[in-house]
């Protein structure tokens, strides 16, 4: 059995809110491989929960709202002070106002569109800017996306546009960070029953449909997302960058089901 040893590696995981977060699944796998961890969370409301999650993983915790430059500056100053360098960054951050997910995309308000894009897509650029001076050669960034970035998923609305922008950003960041030996990839995960998923109108219909149509005839697990995240961050994926990698039981390959 292959054993992955990431002892001495430093990883920042952004966007964990609870134990069912996909970012937390990746964090657990990194911890099991020996990496040192830090979590960032948005605000005081999440502080207690994130600190509770961080404790068994011996992870540092930092507060940072990705829409505020000064808080991001403080976060990465804290990372530099604690570790000096950084190897891995997991970006698991997305948000859209609920009303922008419930109606027609055609009716999306300007401020809701801009907020969704800022939090869900530009935030990757903002954190990459600040991580760049700290990233060691062989470093890796991973973000989370979804199939609605390329095909219409009713009610995913503005979040689909944000994910499309996020995926384009992955390619450009991979190109610009590549000469330093730093890789950037995205995980396109199938539906998983997380707290964040509950905010998506019609989520359970999506969840059930994937299990019916996907070649594996089931949905994926958090652990499968964690395994892929660990792989993409690690030296095992040293030749992979700028990619959107699917873990969705094969759902994305399907065109038409005739049975």
From TrEMBL:
Signal peptide: none annotated. Pfam families: adh_short_C2 (PF13561). One of its GO terms (molecular function) is enoyl-[acyl-carrier-protein] reductase (NADH) activity. Its EC number is 1.3.1.9. InterPro entries: Enoyl-ACP_Rdtase_NADH, NAD(P)-bd_dom_sf, SDR_fam. The keyword NAD applies. Pathway: Lipid metabolism; fatty acid biosynthesis. Gene3D superfamilies: Enoyl acyl carrier protein reductase (1.10.8.400), NAD(P)-binding Rossmann-like Domain (3.40.50.720). Keywords: Fatty acid biosynthesis, Fatty acid metabolism, Lipid biosynthesis, Lipid metabolism, NAD, Oxidoreductase. The keyword Lipid metabolism applies. Substrate binds at residue 96. GO terms for biological process: fatty acid biosynthetic process. The active site is at residues 146, 156. Belongs to the short-chain dehydrogenases/reductases (SDR) family. FabI subfamily. This is Enoyl-[acyl-carrier-protein] reductase [NADH]. It comes from Thermus scotoductus.
